[in-house]
Every structure is written in structure tokens, then in C-alpha cells.
Specification:
Length: about 170
Amino acid sequence: MRSRRRGFTLLEILLAMVILASGVVLLANSWSGSFMRIRKTQTNTEVAALLERKMTEIDLKYRGKPLESIEEEVSDDFGSDYPDYRWEMKSKEFELPDLSTGLTSQEGGASEMLITVMKTMSEHLKKTIKEVKVSVFHKTKGGKELEYSVTTFFVDYNKELPLPGGM
């Protein structure tokens, strides 16, 4: 009797290699996607911590002080601990839309007294509230700079409300 040796055909070997290569490609894509998500989450966590830190510093620096003491624009970096990050603070006068136009457009309009009170209140709020925007900038590997911002409002509760008619 003659013994026959059975082996794999070329087609079977090629098919096995295609299946193996497909599995390796899928695994590599999955790993790459997970790695990118982890890196993005780490960046977002760092930015959130730096924003919180800077907002706390600014709040402690200006709390209880007159609004005029808040600087218009300040910027710096976070030192050698975070070389790819820098921060910027911009403050501006609180802008309130003119509400009296909405009142006069209603049926019957608005009384002159109500319009005067609304304008007085708007002016008072402009003088007692200051908007402060803090931004953290992150320089990516490609050289692009991403901005993350938080806005807060400082209120001076010590300013008297001027009432019309000397009330």
C-alpha cells in the first residue's frame, strides 16, 4: 500500500492568511481608536483642572474688591509643568440689551415711568456687574492651538441702586 501524504493546498493557505490579516487590521484599528480617545480624555481632564485652578485664583484675587480693580486683559503660561498650555483672562463691562423697546412694542405700550425704571436698572447693572472670561489654550502636536473658555460674572453688591424721583 502506498501511503498518501495530505497537506494544505495553496488556496487554503491563502484563505487562512486573509482571515488572519483581517483580524490583525481590525485589532490595530481598535487599539488606535482607543488610544486616541484616552489621549483626548487626558487632555480634556488637564484643561478642566487648569481652568478650575485659574478661575479659583482669579476669584480669590478679586473677591470683595471694586470692579474697577479687575484688569482688562492678563495672560501667562503654566510654567514648565504644563509647557503646551497657556491662559488668558479678559474682562469687560456687562452688556444688557435694552429691554424698554420690548415693553413699548406691547399693546398699549409702556408708561414713561416704567421705561425710566428699566433704563435706570440697566445702567445700574452695567455698573455693578463685570464679565470675566478665562481661556486655556492647548498647543497640539500639529502646532494647532485649541481654546477652552469659562465665563463668570463679578458683582459689586455695595453699589447703591439709584431710584428715579429721589425715592
